[in-house]
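Pipeline run #58 for the internal structure catalog. This entry was flagged by the ingest filter as a single-chain record with no existing model, so it goes straight to prediction. Upstream metadata was stripped on purpose; only the residue string is passed forward. Reviewer on rotation: M.T. Logging verbosity set to normal.
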Amino acid sequence: MVGGPACYLSAMAFPRDLLAEHEELIFEKRPHWVALVPAALWTIGLLAALLLGYRALDAIFDEATTPKAILGLVVTGLWVFFAVVAFTKWRFTLFVLTTDRLITRSGVIAKHSKEIPLERINDVTFTQSIVERVLGAGDLLLDSSGDLGPARITAVQKPEEVQLLIYKETEKNENRMRMPNLAGQPHKEPTIPEQIEALARLRKQGTLSEEEFESKKRELLDRM
C-alpha cells in the first residue's frame, strides 16, 4: 500500500468533515517534488543573473545603487511569478483517494476541487518518462463515464502503486453496491443508468461478452 492517512497529514490536509459517515480516507498526498524542478531552476537562474548583473553594473557605474535596486526589483518580481507561485500551487494541491471517490483539490484562497466517483471510473493508466521512473513520479490518466470525461493528474508519487490502489478500491466499491444490506436496512437499488455503467465496466474487463452486454442492456432499457 502506498501509505495510510497518517503518512500524508500536513498543514493543508483534506478536511475530514467533508467525508460521509461511511466513507474512509485511503490516502492524501501532494504532487511529487519533481513538480518543483522548474521553480528551482528559475531560482538558480535568476540568482545567477542577479549576481552577474550586479557585477556588470559595478563595472559600468561609479554609483550603481539605483540601477541595482531596479535590477533587484525586476529579478524579485520574476522569481515570485515563476518560482514562489509554483511552490505555493504545489503546497496547496492535494490528491485524495477515499473508499467512494477520487478527489483533486487546489488553491490558497479560491479553492478548486474535482471529484470522480469510483463507480464512474472505467480505466486508469499511467505514463512515466525515464527520469520520472527513476524518481518515482508519473502522470495518471483516468477514463470516466458520463460528463466527467478523461482526466489527467500530473506529478503523482509512485503512480503504478496508486493505479493498483484505485483499481482495488473501485472493485470494493462495486462489490458494496451489488451486495445486499446485511444490517437489515432497506437496500437502495441502483438506477438503470448506473446498472448499465456497471455492465459496461464488466464488458471492458472481459467479464461480459459484447453479446451478453447488449442483451442485458436491452433488458434494462425495456424496464424504463
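catalog note: The longest helix spans residues 65-91.
catalog note: Residues 1-11 have pLDDT under 50 and may be disordered.
status: ready for reviewer M.T.
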